[in-house]
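Quick check before the chapter quiz. The format below is the same one you will see on the exam, so make sure you can read both the input and the output lines.
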Amino acid sequence: MPERCPVCAQKFELEQGFWFGTGYVSYALSVALSVATLVAYWVLIGISWQDNSIFIWLGINGALLVVLQPWLMRVSRVIYLYFFVYYDESTEDLPEK
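Here is the expected output.
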């Protein structure tokens, strides 16, 4: 990740350990994704303890979370940064430094 924004020169790491909070955002995104896949699996296929379909969903969900983890971490950084930094579109019109 670059140290500063190439457009507005905003420093990305506002303080030491700033990005530790993204773990909470990533966790929330992972839980939301897991709930969404559970509901989709339940509606489309159905979940039952008799045929162990819950374990099939757990395997699919685990694999999906592992594959999507790089994307989830980047999205969580963007969401976390939006909490603390205001984006002003007019800064794109400023001359380069």
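If your answer matched, good. Residues 26 and 73 are 6 Å apart (CA to CA).
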